[in-house]
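Hi all, posting the design record for the shared folder.

TITLE: backbone redesign
STEP: 1 of 1
STRUCTURE INPUT:
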């Protein structure tokens, strides 16, 4: 049985930490790919651990994908 996309999206969104939700929503308005370094510029040092947790969760759920330069 395959779930409707709206149900899958709701399930993914519910499993995201608050900062990951913020990142995912911000990405809706970004027209070009964004590097990890550029995203890290948004983060204050005191929130680096929360940033890493958010990014890890987004990668785990395949909301974000890692692309390596060749």
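Okay, here is what came back for every position:
SEQUENCE:
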């Amino acid at each position: 049985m395959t779930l409707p996309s709206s149900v899958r999206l709701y399930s993914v969104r519910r499993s995201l930490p608050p900062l990951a939700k913020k990142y995912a929503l911000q990405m809706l308005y970004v027209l070009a790919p964004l590097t990890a370094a550029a995203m890290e510029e948004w983060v204050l040092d005191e929130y680096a651990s929360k940033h890493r947790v958010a990014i890890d969760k987004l990668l785990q759920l395949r909301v974000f994908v890692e692309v390596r330069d060749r």
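COMMENT: The chain has one domain: 5-60.
Let me know if anyone wants the other runs.
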